[in-house]
Amino acid sequence: MRRPGRRAPPGGRRRTRMGDDAARAWAAVEALGARPESRAIRPLFAADPGRFARFAHRAGDLLVDLSKTSVSDAALAALLDLARACGVEARRDAMARGEPINATERRAVLHIALRAPRSAGFRAGEEDASAAVHDTLDLMRAFTEAVHAGEIRGATGERFTDVLNIGIGGSDLGPAMAARALWREGVSPLRAHYLANVDAHAWEALRPRLDPARTLVLVASKTFTTQETMLNARLVRAWLAAALGEERVRLHLAAMSTNLEATGAFGIAPARVFGFRDWVGGRFSLWSAIGLSLALALGWEAFARLLAGARAMDEHFLSAPLERNVPVLMALVEAWHVNALGYGARAVLPYDERLARLPAHLQQLEMESLGKRVTLAGTPVARATGPVVFGEPGTNAQHSFMQLVHQGTTPVPVDFILVARPDHPHAESHRALLANGLAQAEALLRGRSAEEARAEMAAAGLPEAEIARLLPHRVFPGDRPSTTILLPRLAPETLGQLVALYEHKVFVLGALWGVNAFDQWGVELGKQLAGPIGEELEGGVREGAHDGSTAGLLEAIRREQGL
Length: 563
Ligand code: F6P
Known about the structure:
By secondary structure, the chain is of the alpha/beta class. It is built from 21 helices and 13 strands.
């Protein structure tokens, strides 16, 4: 079993008192993790019939069951000490005060202001952030209602029936995920489509389904410089111009961005630009103007309910004591898995097809935030940070990667997301879905011993030699951790609560690990290299500019293309 990497703290630097407390708290957590019984879960249930009641917590409408993990009472106490020693509450409060906690970009982090009432009074420096948020929400609402009422129409006078959101990363994943989760027949006169990949096969697949005369195009980009988005925006703009005439294209365009100069240069009228501020990180921007496609496709009321759901989770996070604060507890469980037990990955399995894009959204939210190797102070981190996050909807996942989760060599903690009541009339299907989700979690916990596997095969009449041959393959180790999140129903407010829960979990982990969860310098280098490589694909490979592999591949592609 891989042990978590532990490096000595950077030498020579005088530690702060908080640093000393944190180091001691980490040492206590890691010492508990090193005990022989630290991975066992079944004995915790055997010893405590009340474990579920004590480890399953309510936050808003969600029930979050942390009992199927090896966090014992002693481990929980040590983890809560860790949260205190790392100053989680003080950092949370600094975020809420609008302090520039995104230190490398000198920015505040105020996505919580996006879903708070105007009266909440959030401030970012001199600015009344709450007022700015609500001024934009008012514009978004007026625009949405005018489109729905047919007061804003396309160039030919037809009503809009489709909205195409062009954006990538945070300007795509959150809205695309929520639109898929919440869209129902008849909720609005518009269908939403999402174009992210610079691979024009994506656009070619979408194009035949759209009528330019009835399509409203939203260019979603915080920076309005992202290569993929700008290339796709130009393709789609050309398609509109070819069908409607260059001078009428603007009637089909709107933008969501912080870069008003660039939106103007692209030909988008200022009245059609919905702004937000640099204190909204891309992966936290679903609640900002970036969510406009949701308002258009789901209706304003649904968008407002989504924000209200997130707000309810914010209130819980901002006020609940650490020991009942569910995002904090989820983060502590993750720290236990990653740092005390050395589990370097986590799977997310929503047992609801409508949440199929939730794993993709969480991959960006968690890995772009927590995939960091230096602390806020710029020194190497002392222990492992963000785990690999991946997932697929259940039950499909059971027929792909769950084999490894049950019997592979390294445990992979799982988040099971269950929805108690469906929005379809097929009770038997929903029972099967829920039963499978619960069974997976139970199987991971319970495992199957050699005696059980032997008895099962004997009962099936297998000969002794065959039983002996198959036995090792049919044993499940058990004691594999999972968290189950139960939603009463999938609705705008419960989805808002769920996504905000994960956002705050990320915040807490950033505080525990001492990293900046709000920058993403790691995506820059590849972007920079792509420019010159693109030129070489067209004009020829520069001598000595690349490693042998990249140069060889460039040549091979050019040969295939007959260049
Ligand atoms: O992938 C890097 C990134 O900067 C993400 O953080 C962001 O969500 C995405 O690109 C899109 O950026 P923008 O909204 O500026 O186009």
